[in-house]
Amino acid sequence: MQKVNRHILLNPGPATTTDSVKYAQVVPDICPRENDFFHIMHFVSSELTSFVADKEQYATVLFGGSGTASVESILSSVMTDGAIVIINNGAYGQRLCEIAHAYQLDWYEFKSPPDHPIQLDILKTFIQKLPKTVSYLAVVHNETTTGLLNDIEAIGTICKEKNIEMMVDAMSSFAAIPIDMNKMNIAYLAASSNKNLQGMAGISFVIAPKNKLEKKKTTKPTNYYLNLHSQFKYFIETGQMRFTPPVQTIYALKQAIIELKEEGVKERYERYSQLWETLIEGLTKLGFKYIVPAENHSKLITAILEPTCKAYNFTNMHDYFYKNSITIYPGKLKNMNSFRVANIGDLTVNDINLFLTIMEEYLQYIGIDTKEENLAGILYESK
Ligand SMILES: Cc1ncc(COP(=O)(O)O)c(C=O)c1O
């Protein structure tokens, strides 16, 4: 197997993949309506379930699409009565609100700061005081905007007390942070193939208890391609997706699942956490400040405050890294200027050290003396 030219992706997915995952896509052409393909689909869907739940009781529904497809599928398929509370503490919480708005759901936004944990007592009071009965709550697990890790277990407990179904956007936590859907009281979980799973982009999926997926039979459909119940029913009856799947992406996903099982979810998270510790130690030495305190951090993606010194410019810095085969990512926060570095994918500590070396070189290139004692004072111009 010839090695593929390696790029270090420090954007929050698609992440750096192994060559074996890349090469898994190179297969003889196959019609996805064939039995041979059914076996692959079955493997992928049941193994994805097993990472977070008991596959006798829960199932995974696959869609061709980016991550947003699965989130949109849940929000547009599931609600029959009552209102939904959407927790918004970043760009992906905001996206949940935008989807709810697009489908004209009966939704209420619970806003929370992007850099602090959700105050659970305030959330409880918020739910209690709403004029409507709340039947659903949607929350992002790892808010990719900042790396803030929302405490879904505690929110799940509140939902249990109040008989609310919790929907979790686990796009950037699934396959790294251990999740137990039953224990955490998650009714619906959305994720995709191309982040911590280390597969290719193109598959979005929903995991839910089978009885919830089967349930909705009589209510008027509000969607078509993304209809969760129809997609599940068709898969049970035929072993296929209703519409053309991204065939080669599914072969890559099968390989990515095999590699995740070999590594283990807990062990993958330990590897990622070690990369994060290396990253943070190095960035702090170079004078950078990051937004979310370590105790509330997912340790998977970090929003770093942009330096305020005149010589700094994100596009220049991005291009400097890109020339060195490293991709970094712009920020997404409204009131704080930030850029983002993710530490997910097929990466090692050497990759993070290389990133730090190039960062030091870049700072020198824009005229910063990296031997200075108080680099933060220079980067953030407090001198
Ligand atoms: C938490 C979260 N939700 C949803 C999405 C949307 O995924 P996609 O861009 O694949 O549609 C992302 C992507 O980064 C994400 O991080």
TrEMBL record:
PANTHER family xref list: 2-AMINOETHYLPHOSPHONATE--PYRUVATE TRANSAMINASE
Top-level taxon of origin: Bacteria
InterPro entries assigned to the protein according to its UniProt record, in alphabetical order: Aminotrans_V_dom, NH2EtPonate_pyrv_transaminase, PyrdxlP-dep_Trfase, PyrdxlP-dep_Trfase_major, PyrdxlP-dep_Trfase_small, SP_NH2Trfase/AEP_transaminase
Stated role: Involved in phosphonate degradation.
SUPFAM superfamilies noted in UniProt: PLP-dependent transferases
Gene: phnW_2
Name of the protein in its database record: 2-aminoethylphosphonate--pyruvate transaminase
Modified residues (N6-(pyridoxal phosphate)lysine): 195
Cofactor: pyridoxal 5'-phosphate
Family under the similarity heading: Belongs to the class-V pyridoxal-phosphate-dependent aminotransferase family. PhnW subfamily.
Coiled coil: none
Complex and partners: Homodimer.
Recorded catalytic activity of this chain's protein: (2-aminoethyl)phosphonate + pyruvate = phosphonoacetaldehyde + L-alanine
HAMAP family to which the protein is assigned, alphabetical: PhnW_aminotrans_5
One GO molecular-function entry: 2-aminoethylphosphonate-pyruvate transaminase activity
Enzyme Commission code: 2.6.1.37
Keywords assigned: Aminotransferase, Pyridoxal phosphate, Pyruvate, Transferase
Domain Aminotransferase class V stretches: 34-302
Enzyme superclass (EC): transferase
